[in-house]
């Protein structure tokens, strides 16, 4: 996964599809295609290259945790429009994640990522959808 935190806020999930916001993810896709182009020229075959999935998050990857943790009816009011530091404070009680112990981070973030919350993330965070669907391919025998 190749991720880029934009540090830019959105007022609502569908704002992802407006103006330049949607274009940022397409620029990242173009970079990945250039990577594959260069490797193909160098003689690499697809079997020896990683699958690179671009994810551009607004404002940061914490929006995934917010969608997993916060009731969907409150998500837009509580999480959208917040700057990255404000979102971290909302979710973890601090802007500085390095101050959290591994156990605290697990309790405040990782424990909320589960099969049920993946559906909430998919429904409420548009930039997650391609990533989640791509990972879902693994459950099918292609």
Task: Describe the 3D structure.
The protein has seven helices and two strands. It has helices at residues 19-41, 62-69, 72-78, 84-92, 102-108, 115-124, 129-136; strands at residues 2-5, 54-57. With 142 residues, the protein is mainly alpha-helical. The mean pLDDT is 90. The relative contact order is 0.16. The radius of gyration is 17 Å and the shape is globular. The chain is 51% helix and 6% strand. β1 (2-5), α1 (19-41) and β2 (54-57) form a beta-alpha-beta unit.
What are its keywords?
single chain; 142 residues; mainly alpha; two-stranded parallel sheet; globular
Radius of gyration: 17 Å
Spatial strand sequence of the major β-sheet: 1-2
Instruction: Report low-confidence residues grouped into runs of 5 or more.
Output: none
Structural class: mainly alpha
**N-end to C-end Cα span:** 20 Å
Taken in chain order, the helices and strands follow as EHEHHHHHH
Number of helices: 7
Number of DSSP-assigned strands: 2
Average pLDDT rating: 90
Measured as a percent range, the helix fraction is: 40-55%
**Main pleated-sheet profile:** 2 strands, parallel
Gross morphology is globular
What share of the residues does DSSP label as strand, in percent?
Answer: 5-15%
